Amino acid sequence: MAALGWLTPRRRSATARSVLAGEAAAEAARKTSQQLDELEQLESAKADRKPAEPEFPVIGDIRAAAFFDLDNTVMQGAAIFHFGRGLYKRKFFQRRELARFAWQQTWFRLAGVEDPEHMQDVRESALSIVKGHRVSELMSIGEEIYDEYMADRIWPGTRALAQAHLDAGQKVWLVTAAPVETATIIARRLGLTGALGTVAESVDGVYTGKLVGEPLHGPAKAEAVRALAAAENLDLARCAAYSDSHNDIPMLSLVGHPYAINPDTKLRKHARERDWRLRDYRTGRKAAKVGIPAAAGVGALAGGTAAAVALHRRRR
């Protein structure tokens, strides 16, 4: 048995065991540090070999432009609801109709999506309200309504994205189902190029209560963007489009740089499957509802403009 004595662990004092543990820990730390250094060097080498992300927006690329949806992308809520609120204040319609507008706006804000039946109901209400009024009258009132109900509802982060395109020398258009007159006022107030919107019929400058064609919604937006791109000699592969709604997937799919802004659930899923870029400027509570980390939503809201501007500067 004496020959096997070397197999029996020798008893060490507490001090000796502490020294041994400390030496072992130090050696393990040294090896781990070496491994981390080697891994960092490897990752750095890979990064050096990876081609740099191209600058976007490309400064001076006049064949590129940006197309922004309006409701819940550029502005919180729907422009037509805010417009209706302003008209009620000016006694264009009765309290019962205001209650319907208020309910539809609340539903839109909570659901975060565009329901075709709700939107159709709103359009019919708006058309009946403006019927018989002069276009010039509604344009003048629209300027006042923007200041009263819309100016404070512009998402700073989205506004900064639009400004990045303008700074790059590109045209920026709103593309919305809202009346073209309302959309044009908003575009001008934001310093954008112009707006594509739903056209209400007028005769001799007076609204008839009918539409020209159909509302600029879903596939109609894509057709409007396609037509404008042809008229402006734009290359859609170099253009960008921004929207919150899955209804705008046809428009987003037209361009080379699609962005999902404050996306609804269907658009978020579609964007992730296709590796589209996403931005969310809503509160943590709202962001959590649509399935993103609350912290990300709060951070986006708190740093909306700063984050977008910083992103633009890094890419420049």
Q: pLDDT below 50 for ≥5 consecutive residues: which ranges?
A: 285-316
| Mean pLDDT, all residues | 78
Strand order of the largest sheet: 3-2-1-6-7-8
Care to count the β-strands? 8
Q: How is the main sheet built? A: 6 strands, parallel
* β-sheet strand percentage: 5-15%
Rg from Cα: 29 Å
Helical run tally: 13
Topology as a string of helices (H) and strands (E)? HEHHHHHEHEEEHEHEHEHHH
Distance between the termini: 78 Å
**Coarse morphology:** elongated
User: Helix/strand/pairing class, anyone?
Assistant: alpha/beta
Q: How are the SSEs placed, and which strands pair?
A:
Elements: H1 14-49, E1 65-68, H2 79-89, H3 95-111, H4 116-130, H5 135-150, H6 156-167, E2 171-179, H7 180-189, E3 194-198, E4 200-203, E5 206-211, H8 219-232, E6 240-243, H9 249-254, E7 257-261, H10 265-273, E8 277-279, H11 284-289, H12 294-302, H13 304-315
Parallel strand pairs: 1-2, 1-6, 2-3, 6-7, 7-8
Antiparallel strand pairs: 4-5
Helix pairs in contact: 2-3, 2-5, 5-7, 6-13
Question: What report would you give on this structure?
Answer:
With 316 residues, the protein is α/β, with parallel strands linked by helices. The protein is built from 13 helices and 8 strands. It has helices at residues 14-49, 79-89, 95-111, 116-130, 135-150, 156-167, 180-189, 219-232, 249-254, 265-273, 284-289, 294-302, 304-315; strands at residues 65-68, 171-179, 194-198, 200-203, 206-211, 240-243, 257-261, 277-279. The strands form 2 sheets. It has a 6-stranded parallel β-sheet, with helices on both faces. Strands 4-5 form a two-stranded antiparallel ribbon. Helix 2 crosses helix 5. The longest helix is centred in the N-terminal third of the chain and has 36 residues, at 14-49. The radius of gyration is 29 Å and the shape is elongated. 34% of the residues are buried. Mean pLDDT is 78; it is low at 285-316.
